[in-house]
Design goal:
Number of domains: 1
Distance between the termini: 14 Å
Strand order of the largest sheet: 2-1-3
Number of strands: 3
Radius of gyration: 12 Å
Order of helices and strands: EEHEH
Number of helices: 2
Strand content: 5-15%
Structural class: alpha+beta
Largest sheet: 3 strands, mixed
Helix content: 25-40%
Shape: elongated
Oligomer: single chain
Length: about 55
Amino acid sequence: MGGGRGEEDAREFVEVGDIDSATAWGRVEDFYDYRAANDSDGGAELAAGAAKRLTE
């Protein structure tokens, strides 16, 4: 899960996953704090950052 700009209930969140890894390793959760993400692109930059973090 990634958290973008905003505070509390006004903060943008996205959830990303990798079904192949989840099948092999089970579900692992992490939080990616990315407040610098662009807030005018519909969450695309935040989702990309969270997905990159997932592969790390």
